[in-house]
Amino acid sequence: MIIRNTGSATRRERFDRQPEKRHRLVQAAIEEFNEYGLENASYNRIIERSGLSKGSVYYYFDNKEALLAAVMEEIGTRVLEAVPEHPLPETKEEYWPAVWDYRQREFDFFASNVALGRVLILSLGNNEPETEEHVEEVCPPLVRLIRRQKALITRGQELGAVRNDLSVDVILELMRTVDRALCEKFFGCGARAFRKRPTLPSDTADQPDAALPSGTRKPGCLAEEIEKLSPGEREERSRAYTQLFQDLVYRMMEPQPLGVSS
Question: What is the Rg, in whole angstroms, of the alpha carbon atoms belonging to the chain?
């Protein structure tokens, strides 16, 4: 879904200076997008959820797409706050601990903010690999995150900790591929899982699962993918994800001995 902010910048600035109102509307939008997806979400339902007047909301945002742009800015800002920029490692010995620390903070943020991650995945759509240009169109703040990731990979190549027979872009996409696959394995909530299960109309909410068409879900069921896990189960799966992610990524990224083909 292409996101274009069609609201007035001046009106948006006024809206941003009202944190309580902003929180209510953004949270209502996140809930609606999680329950119904981006295409089926209703702007009027979002307004009703927020408890704000329709006139005031339309004053700040012309349509659902403009509001979604504000939601994506909020998600990007919160990710950057959770994963602050640190100096690049100076030695080979410092490199991998720095990589895992960075990746763990990013993982912890989305594991603790599943609804935000879900909106981000749906907004990025089916563009794979996720180019800087595409991410900048969808969620501009996250471009900084991508550039940090690329800088970290480049530093690893400079230090001799990361193979240099592959480009930075290829290595980054390999890491994303591992991440998507492991998220589906351990949490059942990878990008493909989100996209392949269309939302049904709200009047199906009381129907038993067996009565629903194959491959569909009731509104709201997707929100239970991770939340239904107990804290212990979530911690166990997170630990298994982290260990396997580190093992696979290290094997892919470590410099290859002479005579060993990739």
Answer: 20
| Dihedral of alpha carbons 13, 19, 22, 26, sign | positive
What angle, 0 to 180 degrees and rounded to 10, lies between the N-to-C axes of helices 114-124 and 19-40? Answer: 50
Catalogue all structural domains in the chain, each as residue range(s) with its CATH number: 7-82 (1.10.357.10), 86-255 (no CATH)
DSSP for residue 62? S
Place of tokens 């005579």: 259
Q: Cβ of 206: how many Cβ atoms within 10 Å?
A: 8
Question: Residue 140: is the preceding peptide bond cis (ω within 30°)?
Answer: no
How far apart are the C-alpha atoms of 199 and 38, rounded to whole Å?
10
Residues 6+ apart with CB under 8 A from 16: 22
Backbone angles phi, psi at 108, to 5 degrees: -60, -40
The SS3 assignment for 199 reads strand
Q: How far apart are CA 143 and CA 134, in angstroms?
A: 9
Q: What is the pLDDT of residues 163-218, one digit of tens each?
A: 999 999 999 999 988 988 888 888 766 544 444 444 444 444 444 444 444 444 44
The Cα–Cα gap between 19 and 25 comes to: 10
Sign (positive/negative) of CA torsion 33, 37, 39, 40?
negative
CA distance 132 to 142: 9
End-to-end CA distance of the chain: 36
In degrees, rounded to 5, the angle at the alpha carbon of residue 142 between the alpha carbons of residues 46 and 96 is 135
How many C-alpha atoms does 153 have within 13 Å on its Cβ side? 23
Number of residues that this document lists for the chain: 262
The predicted model scores a pTM of: 0.75
Buried b (16+ CB within 10 A) or exposed e, 184-200: eebbebbbebbeeeebb
